Amino acid sequence: MKVRCPICGISCLWQDNPWRPFCSERCRLLDLGNWAAGDYRIAGAAASPIEEEEEEP
Description:
By secondary structure, this protein is of the alpha+beta class. It contains one helix and two strands. The N and C termini lie far apart (64 Å).
């Protein structure tokens, strides 16, 4: 079965591909970098910040 790499769009074989769903280690690392940089976001309303409660001594 052939699938398209989500990063570069190249068609590659799924079976015996050590980097699937990517075509190469380079694309796998680019995807990891995108996650680390915060480039992927889920659409929706912004979350409100969590307010920390002060503890009484």
